[in-house]
Amino acid sequence: MTASDDRRYLALALSLGRRGQGATWPNPSVGCVIVKDGRVLGRGWTAPGGRPHAEPQALAHAGEAARGATAYVSLEPCSHHGKTPPCTDALIAAGIARVVAPMADTDPRVSGQGFDRLRAAGIAVTTGLMVDEAERDHAGFFMKTELGRPFVTLKLASSFDGRIATATGESQWITGPEARRLVHAMRLRHDAVMVGAGTARADDPSLTVRDLGVARQPVRVVVSRRLDLPLMSTLARTAKQVPVWLCHGPDTDPTLRRTWEGLGARLFACDVKGGQLDPASVLQALGGAGLTRVFCEGGGALAAALLGADLVDELVGMTAGVTIGADGLPAIGALGLGRLAAAPRFRLREARPLGGDVLHMWERAGD
């Protein structure tokens, strides 16, 4: 295999892994391709719920033809016994001759041990290809493993002047149908959709993925210090069908907690800082529950809290060609900045038209 062949097949493995994003937490979403003599013999990606893993699925497709083949995997194969046997054992038993993967897994149960096990079995291992792409794909899993919190995407759909509603609260619809459809696709690729209590009260959102022909739904998270949320809301009525997680303060009314639990919600007591829920505590709670990727859709107070605490990893902007004015509701609440140098800054990754709107995606300026 040439270097360009390795990159081509590894890119395919990475693309397969992305198919599982949002469905495999707390595990990473990994892709695997089995190749011999320029022919793809098998392919697989992590199944919903995190198992079976990508490698055994790809090996099952390849069958006996996998002997002597190369396995392209988007992350180091696991080497520990969990709920399934190690993927390294499956690759060795199948007679794989070579494994190509971008990097080691940061999970301390693996962290290079998978590669060592493969080499000890006489399998050639190649690493270091397409590292940037793999780091981006697995950023949520790495963050949960290393920092204890999920990767956070903050989505802001707003007017040209940064407003998400008029002074009377009207917000449907600022952006067009193409933008709304993309939002549903983005929800699908995240483990959870998160909003603040103000948004939950004002919009009565369902926070589900619709019109894409899928059955799986992300977890729906509401950040509400006092749990002062409508008990007849869409979220409350559907909590037993689609998971609802509520992050609240330690001093919440016990009756409210029991009521929400009776409706089917899962509750997380989080720390309070400066009179509001500490966003770092919220994300630690979500990471501790297994989430790796969270899609935050506001509102302004929650967006400001996350930005102010430097907890936003990716910004997605959908901007419409309409102006609302200073009396409209801002997309981001007050940050209390005295100097421009202290403002959160992001680096543009992509910008393109999206129907009648503009999509712009940003990543941390320091990454």
UniProtKB/TrEMBL annotation:
Which residues does the UniProt record annotate as the domain CMP/dCMP-type deaminase?
Answer: 4-126
Xref: InterPro entries: APOBEC/CMP_deaminase_Zn-bd (IPR016192), CMP_dCMP_dom (IPR002125), Cytidine_deaminase-like (IPR016193), DHFR-like_dom_sf (IPR024072), Eubact_RibD (IPR004794), RibD_C (IPR011549), RibDG_C (IPR002734), Riboflavin_Biosynth_HTPR (IPR050765)
What GO terms are given for molecular function? 5-amino-6-(5-phosphoribosylamino)uracil reductase activity; diaminohydroxyphosphoribosylaminopyrimidine deaminase activity; NADP binding; zinc ion binding
Catalytic center residues: 55
List ligand-binding residues for Zn(2+): 53, 78, 87
User: Entry's Pfam families?
Assistant: dCMP_cyt_deam_1 (PF00383), RibD_C (PF01872)
Cite the EC number: 3.5.4.26, 1.1.1.193
Identify the pathway.
Answer: Cofactor biosynthesis; riboflavin biosynthesis; 5-amino-6-(D-ribitylamino)uracil from GTP: step 3/4; Cofactor biosynthesis; riboflavin biosynthesis; 5-amino-6-(D-ribitylamino)uracil from GTP: step 2/4
Listed Gene3D superfamilies: Cytidine Deaminase, domain 2 (3.40.140.10), Dihydrofolate Reductase, subunit A (3.40.430.10)
Question: Catalysed reaction(s)?
Answer: 5-amino-6-(5-phospho-D-ribitylamino)uracil + NADP(+) = 5-amino-6-(5-phospho-D-ribosylamino)uracil + NADPH + H(+); 2,5-diamino-6-hydroxy-4-(5-phosphoribosylamino)-pyrimidine + H2O + H(+) = 5-amino-6-(5-phospho-D-ribosylamino)uracil + NH4(+)
The entry's substrate-binding residues are 171, 187, 203, 207, 210, 297
Any one GO BP annotation for this protein: riboflavin biosynthetic process
- Could you tell me what the cofactor note in this record states? Binds 1 zinc ion.
Annotated binding of NADP(+), by residue: 157, 173, 199, 299-305
Cofactor(s), by name: Zn(2+)
Q: Which UniProt keywords apply?
A: Hydrolase, Metal-binding, Multifunctional enzyme, NADP, Oxidoreductase, Riboflavin biosynthesis, Zinc
NCBIfam families from the entry? eubact_ribD, ribD_Cterm
Function per UniProt? Converts 2,5-diamino-6-(ribosylamino)-4(3h)-pyrimidinone 5'-phosphate into 5-amino-6-(ribosylamino)-2,4(1h,3h)-pyrimidinedione 5'-phosphate.
The entry's family comment says: In the C-terminal section; belongs to the HTP reductase family. In the N-terminal section; belongs to the cytidine and deoxycytidylate deaminase family.
What is this protein called in UniProt?
Riboflavin biosynthesis protein RibD
The scientific name of the source species is Primorskyibacter flagellatus
